[in-house]
Amino acid sequence: MSEIGFGLVLDVADPDTLAPFWAEALRYSVVGGVGDYVMLLPAGRGGPRLLLQKVKEGRTGKNRMHLDIEAADIEAEAGRLESLGARRLTSGQVEEHGHRWIVMADPEGNEFCVGES
């Protein structure tokens, strides 16, 4: 059986503007863009590729899928992401089934979580 890989596609209003945020947030590299797309890849390690895709319509509700960023110190990581332009969507940490996370949004409002690694 052959090996498969996968990538993630995030619908955004402006991929060129949002690419630096996600590159820093995920410690990825911006490979480049063409037309309505900008590609990001892990910097020197394995992981899925992230394609930012420009769409005309705005987000109207909760994301059906979101990214989780895992960190040993979620408060410190949330602070780092806030310094890049993210914002917290919850006033504190959410805890469920023995796991804690912070719900956040990127500069365009796309939701993601910072959880314990």
Automatic annotation (TrEMBL):
Coiled coil: none annotated. Residues 3-117 form the VOC domain. InterPro entries: Glyas_Bleomycin-R_OHBP_Dase, Glyoxalase_6, VOC_core. PANTHER family: CONSERVED PROTEIN (PTHR35908:SF1), HYPOTHETICAL FUSION PROTEIN (PTHR35908). This is VOC family protein. It comes from Nonomuraea roseola.
